[in-house]
Design brief:
The protein has 14 helices and eleven strands. Helix 6 packs parallel to helix 7. It is an alpha/beta fold and about 350 residues long. The strands form three sheets. It has a seven-stranded mixed sheet with strand order 1-2-9-6-5-3-4, sandwiched between helices. It binds nicotinamide-adenine-dinucleotide (NAD). The site of nicotinamide-adenine-dinucleotide has 32 residues, from helix 5, helix 6, strand 8, helix 7 and helix 11.
Length: about 350
């Protein structure tokens, strides 16, 4: 087990444990668990039984959760109503400000449980145990919590850093291929935004991760999680522009995800959003054609299926203009000038956006 402790730029520290088939997490982080008067484990109702068994192996007898709470499947968990349902459950079961929430699941579970932890009694400690590939390299790390509102992604949310994040790649053994491919969408993002050494690890392992290769998945989770945690430590609340790189592909990606009515998994939507950003960067004249080809090959490697998204460009424009990252501009996208060289751009014109929109949804 590799353990990390990062000092956050706002306050406090962020701890993480990474590895495969981890056990007895409380023994490695005794202060956190000794301080908790009660522990609730939150998982998704559609998760396989093996997920709960593995989660319980992390927290052995004597330190086992006192209560269990199930959320509805995937994205349907990310509502204010579900956050209220969880907070009411905690209250009815006597949870206090010294209690601990453990969220074990994909990004939908960690986003919702982290959000509930941030509002319950004005904030209680939580542990993030991401169990999908996507959540282990991205969603389960970094303390952004959110619910969706009015058909738009992550409109209400908080920054509430988990006291501990545990990425155990043994969870990935039960992950269906579609979820591996979805996670690989975020993986490709890291290959484009990160340093050359990180891109090299990803390029070497990308096709093996899609085939579920255990050591390839562990190598990518270790490298990406360590990189994300380092960025987050420098810019916990997304105020210094450091975290903005992590949004590469996400503005268009979130719009595609919302437009698909939940049919497009997050990582696949992000992969399409990345392709959108590559085309927009090329058309805006900041990404050379040969570099475009090299980067786009990585999206190609994902072998995306035809996108189940209605080609409604006006709807797309309205979603991107209301994106919380637009900051008053008509639109704002993170574009790219080359590997690791990001260039936020605002108020891009409609013909350029339409070209990128059509190319991304091909
Ligand atoms: N907070 C952030 O920084 C951040 C970053 C990226 C994405 N996100 C959010 O994350 C969400 C997507 O997360 P996701 O891709 O993990 O999808 P998800 O949470 O919807 O999970 C996908 C499916 O995988 C199942 N599952 C989970 N673990 C499993 C396992 N070990 N074995 C078998 N099945 C398992 C779940 O039950 C679910 O059916 C989106 O809501 C997105 O907005 C958040």
């Amino acid at each position: 087990m590799k353990t990390f402790s990062f000092t956050l730029n706002h306050h406090g520290t962020m701890k993480a444990a990474l590895g495969r088939s981890l056990e007895n997490i409380p023994a490695a982080f005794p202060a956190l668990f000794a301080a908790a008067d009660k522990v609730c484990l939150v998982t998704g109702s559609d998760a396989p039984p093996s997920l709960r068994a593995r989660a319980l192996a992390l927290f052995p007898e004597g330190r086992a959760p006192h209560e269990y709470f199930w959320l509805p499947p995937s994205e349907s968990a990310k509502t204010l109503e579900q956050a209220g349902r969880l907070a009411s459950f905690l209250f009815e079961r006597g949870f206090s400000r010294s209690s601990l929430l453990i969220a074990a699941g994909g990004g939908a579970v960690t986003d919702l449980a982290g959000f509930a932890a941030s509002i319950y009694m004005r904030g209680i400690a939580w542990v993030s145990v991401p169990t999908t590939f996507l959540a282990q390299i991205d969603a389960g790390l970094g303390g952004k919590t959110a619910v969706n509102l009015a058909g738009a992604k992550n409109i209400a949310g908080t920054f509430h850093q988990p006291a501990l994040a545990v990425c155990d790649t043994a969870f990935l053994d039960s992950l269906p291929h579609a979820e591996l491919r979805s996670g690989a969408g975020e993986l490709v993002k890291y290959a484009m935004i990160g340093p050359a050494a990180l891109a090299a690890v990803i390029k070497k392992n990308l096709s093996k991760t899609l085939a579920g290769d255990k050591s390839a998945l562990t190598a990518c989770v270790s490298a990406c999680a360590a990189y994300k945690l380092k960025l987050v430590a420098k810019d916990e609340r997304d105020e210094r522009g450091v975290r903005e790189a992590l949004n590469f592909g996400h503005t268009a990606g979130h719009a595609f995800e919302a437009m698909s009515g939940g049919k497009l998994p997050h990582g696949e939507a992000v992969a399409r959003g990345i392709r959108f950003a590559l085309i927009a960067s090329r058309e805006a004249g900041i990404l050379k054609r040969d570099e475009f080809q090299r980067l786009d090959t990585l999206v190609d490697a994902l072998r995306l299926k035809p996108a189940r998204v209605r080609r409604d460009f006006r709807h797309f424009l309205s979603l991107v203009s209301r994106d919380k990252k637009a900051r008053g501009a008509s639109n704002r996208f993170v574009l790219i000038a080359g590997p690791g060289r990001l260039a936020p751009a605002e108020d891009l014109d409609a013909p350029l956006l339409k070209l990128a929109f059509e190319g991304a949804l091909k």
